[in-house]
Amino acid sequence: MDIRVILVPYDSSHFSEDALDYAVYLAKALFLGDPKKQIIKIVILHVIQEIPFTKNLLERMKNKHDDDKESNLNKHVNSIYHEARNSIENDIDEKKKVYKSIVGIKLESCILYGDPANQIIDYSNNNRVDLIVMGSNGLQGLSKIRVLGSVSRKVSEAVSCPMTITR
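RE: above sequence
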């Protein structure tokens, strides 16, 4: 098996940080064991989950703004997504700095919006991903009944490439 692209879904949880550490360790080992010494690309993928707004919440938010209610509401929602994106970009940039000096790996990042499991599945199916390294759980909490979190379970059941789940 020729692994050149590793996808790491990342949500800043310690599970995803451990998965990123493992992916870097694995990429380094693959690079050192490759006689051709081809660079291993690690894609750090973060999905900003869409905020489910109820009708009641939207009405309360509209009532807080007197002027152009619809425009102010859109600005407020956009600022929430903008802040979320800036926060995760800064976090990922810090991670990239930590691993920047490691020979044989190239780190890239991708930020998408939507349902995390579906976006991870779509990304892996629509891009050349050779391996997914993912934490067993994420920020959504621990699954008490199942061993895996709902996102990692859904991804593992739907992707066609190999997947490593870390704890």
